[in-house]
Amino acid sequence: MAHLSGDDKRRYVAEMFARISPRYDLMNSLMTGGMHHRWKRVTADLTGRNAVGPALDVATGTGDLAFALADCSNVTEVVGVDLLPEMLSIANRRRAAGSNYAQTVHFVQGDALRLPFPDDSFVGATAGFSLRNMPDVPSAIREMARVVAPGGRVTTLELTPMPPGIASSMGRFYFHRVVPLMGQLVAGERTAYTYLPDSVDYFLTADGLADVFRQAGLIDVGYRRLGFGGVALHFGDRAA
């Protein structure tokens, strides 16, 4: 199903994430050995260091990256937007449980391809491990760039195809063989956790995604590889 596109992909992904939402956080920690928390903190820091003001987390899921943004000293407020009420319900429960976030983090339902915010609303925008699941990646990046003010930054954290080699072979074995079995045992969802690794095979290379950033009008575009090369942190700025 990783080859789906357009509305078919939107429906399939929405139904899949609604099913796995109760075990989503646990599976993320198991699949990455807990490293996804560190990667999100690095992403948040890179996003929030440029200017003081509000930040946006697109396809926020259960809110991990939104909370990491809120911990940045330059970020005054965070809005997390997601299409799925099931994910937002968990994010709001986490927000209520963390007293530090009650006044600074807010979650709203919305579509990453039609963000419900005016132009130039935020000093930074992030998306974590969600671009692969969007039916139109260039439109999503353009929307993020639109709502970021001049001088602000767009960052994304995403699994990415690895260059050929031993690390790539080991990564493919882990994600295509071990992760689906883990999904079946822990979340009761082998199909969903077969789709997620497969979706990497159909996704842009790190260089290809950097080109999408440039085509959206962002400048000083670059990326870092994390997680033995299987994760890419992309960044680009709105021209001041």
Structural features, described:
There is one protein chain. Helix 4 (64-70) links the parallel strand 1 and strand 2 (75-82). Strands 3-2-1-4-5-7-6 form a seven-stranded mixed sheet, sandwiched between helices. The chain has helices at 6-20, 24-32, 35-48, 64-70, 85-97, 137-147, 166-187, 192-201, 206-215, and strands at residues 53-58, 75-82, 105-109, 122-128, 148-159, 219-226, 231-237. The chain has a single domain (6-157, 206-237), classed as Rossmann fold (3-Layer(aba) Sandwich), CATH 3.40.50. Helix content is 46%, strand content 22%. Helix 2 (24-32) runs antiparallel to helix 7 (166-187), helix 3 (35-48) crosses helix 4 and helix 7 runs antiparallel to helix 8 (192-201). The model has no long low-confidence stretch (mean pLDDT 90). The N and C termini lie far apart (41 Å).
What's the end-to-end separation, in Å? Answer: 41 Å
Largest sheet properties = 7 strands, mixed
Principal-axis shape: globular
How would you write the strand order of the largest sheet? 3-2-1-4-5-7-6
> What is the fourth-level CATH superfamily?
Vaccinia Virus protein VP39
Q: What is the tally of beta strands?
A: 7
Oligomer: single chain
- Return the domain count: 1
The average pLDDT score comes to: 90
Instruction: Note poorly predicted spans.
Output: none
Q: Which percent bin holds the helix content? A: 40-55%
Number of helices: 9
